[in-house]
Design a protein that fits this description.
mainly alpha; three-stranded mixed sheet; 12 helices
Length: about 260
């Protein structure tokens, strides 16, 4: 049985972290700003406030979910501590209840100079936010071990302890990517990811593109699957996607010329 005091402290810790993010304000990302402007015709701050509080607006739910989804930079700040903690399903509700009981508010900040708006945070936004942190997910121990070994190798290679902090950020970002995909790890999948990490240039510009591809490619693999066959099938799928896209673009150009 878990120590109830330890359980309580973990939930308080995360609730306070989330509350701090809210106090700092939420800067709309490019994608969210595009959604706001394209959906609501470039609203002023006052118009945006009216939309945000209008429960009869059919787009309000989607808007709130977009605004209050934890972004990657926010998750990276939590990851180094999250990875060492074990949460249970009941903890999500406890953290949510803690936050909802405080009637929290935040400032929604438009990055284009339009201004900012103070809003009360709806309970459903808090529920969605906590859920999307995926706090129940834990990485395979072998992947964590492999990343720690790579970090040690880089520190020795450059003879510079500050490398550890920079590589720690890369590790946290990688964990966030895997956490957001809710990756489950078969022995085969873990082995493939560890082999890739050992060979890859983790400082390279294409590292995370390769990781995203590898995570998608290995989804659903079992111990009985042949890796070469799986890669070959995925290659054929991509070729088919490219062929269909080229056909569609040809039809689109032809249609534009005719009109």
């Amino acid at each position: 049985m878990r120590d109830p005091i330890e359980k309580e402290l973990k939930c308080i810790w995360l609730a306070e972290k989330i509350e701090k993010f809210y106090h700092e304000g939420i800067v709309l990302s490019h994608d969210v700003l595009h959604f706001v402007d394209s959906t609501f015709s470039n609203p002023t701050i006052k118009e945006f406030g009216d939309i945000f509080t209008d429960k009869s607006n059919l787009e309000r739910e989607s808007l709130i979910e977009l605004i209050f989804s934890p972004d990657e930079s926010m998750q990276v700040q939590l990851e180094d501590s999250l990875i060492d903690k074990v949460f249970e399903e009941s903890d999500e509700k406890q953290i949510t209840d803690m936050l909802c009981s405080k009637s929290l508010s935040t400032h929604i900040i438009f990055p284009d100079g339009r201004g900012q708006l103070k809003v009360n945070i709806p309970d459903e936004a808090i529920v969605s936010f906590v859920s999307k942190l995926n706090i129940l997910w834990k990485p395979a121990a072998q992947i964590v071990k492999t990343l720690d070994q790579i970090s040690d190798q880089y520190i020795k290679k450059y003879d510079d302890p500050s490398q550890g902090q920079r590589l720690g950020h890369i590790k946290d970002l990688l964990m966030v990517r895997m956490r957001n995909k809710r990756i489950d790890y078969s022995e085969m999948r873990t082995k493939i990811l560890c082999l890739f990490l050992e060979k890859a240039d983790i400082e390279g510009t294409s590292f995370f593109n390769c990781i995203d591809y590898l995570l998608d490619m290995t989804e659903g693999l079992t111990e009985d699957d042949d890796i070469y066959e799986a890669l070959s099938q995925r290659k054929l799928q991509y070729r088919e996607y490219i062929r269909k896209r080229e056909e569609f673009e040809t039809l689109l150009r032809k249609g534009n010329l005719e009109t």
